[in-house]
Amino acid sequence: MSARISAKSLRYLIVIGLIALWELLPRAGLIPELFLPSLSSTLIAGWTDAGEYGHALAVTLYEVVVSMAFACGGGILLGAIVGSLPRPRILIMPMVSSLYAVPLVILYPVFTVWLGIGSESKIAFASIYGFLPTMLATAAGIQTIDPQLLLAARSMGATLSQRLVRVIIPAAIPTVLSGLRVGGALVIVGVVVSEMLISSAGIGYLISRYRTILDSPHVFAGVLLVLFLAIGFNAVIRWIEGKAAIWQTGTRAGQANDEIAVNAMQPAT
Amino acid sequence: MQPLANVTQLKPAARAGAIEVKNVGQVFKTRSQDVVALEDVSLEVKPGRFVVLVGPSGCGKSTLLMMMAGLRQQTAGTITISGAPILQPDPDRVGVVFQEASLFPWLTAEDNVEFPLALRGVPKAERRAKAQDALKLVGLDGFGRRHPHELSGGMKQRVSIARGLVQDPPVLLMDEPFAALDEQTRMTMGDELLRIWAATGKTVVFVTHSLTEAVYLADEVIVMSARPGRIVDHLQVQLPRPRTYEMLSGDAFGSLRDRIWRHIRKSA
Q: Residue ranges of the ABC transporter domain (chain B) (predicted)?
């Protein structure tokens, strides 16, 4: 227990140290402000143009949320189909797996031709980008369900739909969540990268525009916003995982409970 | 036998818990050949008896149990339970206990026990009351809120037994339920099962690899041969009940176990 707490405080110390260095190194002149503007000048730049950044954040958030709905919804749906039926699995899985290695960003210029440089092309690109890992994880999650559980449910008279709702879905949740974690992170990457490449709005667009005029504090203000976006997403996923997967053994909560179980085991066996 | 068959057709309830397996066969079709897993298996289990199926690996004893549970269809013959053929899983007539892994890890012990009732839309309060009774019966009073990973192997298997008994079926089928347990827990669980069996009067069909377990638990031991699975012996275990640990080293126990072992060695 004490080791874990000290590891946690160590992590905080490292973060605080990095923030302090961010402020001190440029101020001391050890790093040119063009390469790394100090934290305070970054914050000031962001604050003075808060309206612009707020609008950009709204655009980016909108694109991220819509892309996640497509990527995660479609990924879970198709992953469930592919994972539970052998024929689509044989047909599709090899294609998907090899597609996974292709840098999909090469498709983005094509999307801008098809859909324009507005949000649509970003959403299309980020959706496809985040879709693959979600689908692969869901398919894997469904394939690895213990067949004994399904057999047991059947022996108790569970119909096909009852088995789906009461066994397959809850059993697949942990794997699907890990897919969502990767898929969601890739959606954020996809949106920001595509905004940086060809666009007219969003945080990526701001970063890219301020970079061309060498305004480093404004560039880093955008970087900071993306960082917060990613941290926020991670927190949401963690919260969902905590809610949905309390039963998973091997988690920290599971181990703590195992200790309790050992202490209270006398009455039975 | 003829008059008895007529009686079962008229009054199935009168034969609650009886199992009849008649000329049952099972052939698995693979691409290259047909594998005969079971051939012409017939047996009769009277209500309230404790019957153990033993045999070498691949003799089809688990397959036979799965067919009794309605989880698999035989390719020949008929199986009737409580006087009516079993064509699909029927939790009113048959409860099944599997190996350790079959509890739903995301449900608490009591939710696991309630699961078969929830499937049929039994109201929450009634479900809970029945689950509590079943958990009490298997000696897990007060453990209902635990998740399976918070329970020991033996306790998990108790939950499985409670789940198999919660709808009060006359027949309990058990597929190597203690195979994953360590030896001491296994002995304790054997005694516990006999206590539960005596308290409920269920017909039990129990599959195991352990000859000692077979003789210790059973009224009757049915020995099966390797593929194709056939019944090669049907022993009556006349040892008095309650069974005790001392009987394990007795002559009667030893000769029964030897007799089973000779069959298995021959066919393995």
A: 19-251
**How many CB atoms neighbour CB B104 within 10 A?**
21
Residue at A186: amino acid letter? L
Helix H segments across chain B?
2-10, 61-68, 109-119, 124-137, 153-165, 183-200, 211-217, 251-267
Which helix H or strand E contains A243, and what residues bound it?
helix A216-244
Report field, pTM of the whole predicted structure over 0.90: no
Put simply, whether B93 touches A (Cβ < 8 Å) is no
With beta carbons less than 8 A apart as the criterion, state whether B180 and B186 touch.
no
β-pair type (B50-54, B203-207): parallel
Establish whether the linkage from the previous residue to B242 is cis, with ω within 30° of 0: yes
Whether B188 sits inside 8 A of A269 (CB atoms) is: yes
Q: Which structure tokens are listed for B210?
A: 């352990």
Among the residues of A31-118, which ranges form H helices? Answer: 39-48, 50-84, 86-99, 108-115
Contact check, Cβ <8 Å, B98/A152: yes
| CA dist., res. A79 & res. A250, Å (int) | 25
- Name the residue facing B119 among A162, A171, A249 (closest C-beta): A162
In this prediction the ipTM stands at 0.85
Q: Note down pLDDT in tens along chain B; length 268 residues.
A: 444 444 444 444 557 888 998 888 988 888 888 888 888 889 999 999 999 999 888 788 888 999 999 998 888 889 999 988 999 999 899 999 998 668 998 899 999 999 999 999 999 999 999 999 999 989 888 899 998 888 988 899 999 999 999 989 999 999 999 988 888 888 889 999 999 999 888 999 999 989 999 999 999 999 998 878 888 889 898 888 888 888 888 888 898 999 989 888 887 6
Q: Which residues of A touch B116 (CB under 8 A)?
A: 156-157
Instruction: Compute how many other C-beta atoms are within 10 angstroms of the C-beta atom of residue B15.
Output: 20
> Which residue in A151, A170, A268 is closest to B140 by CB distance?
A268
d(CA B196, CA B190): 10
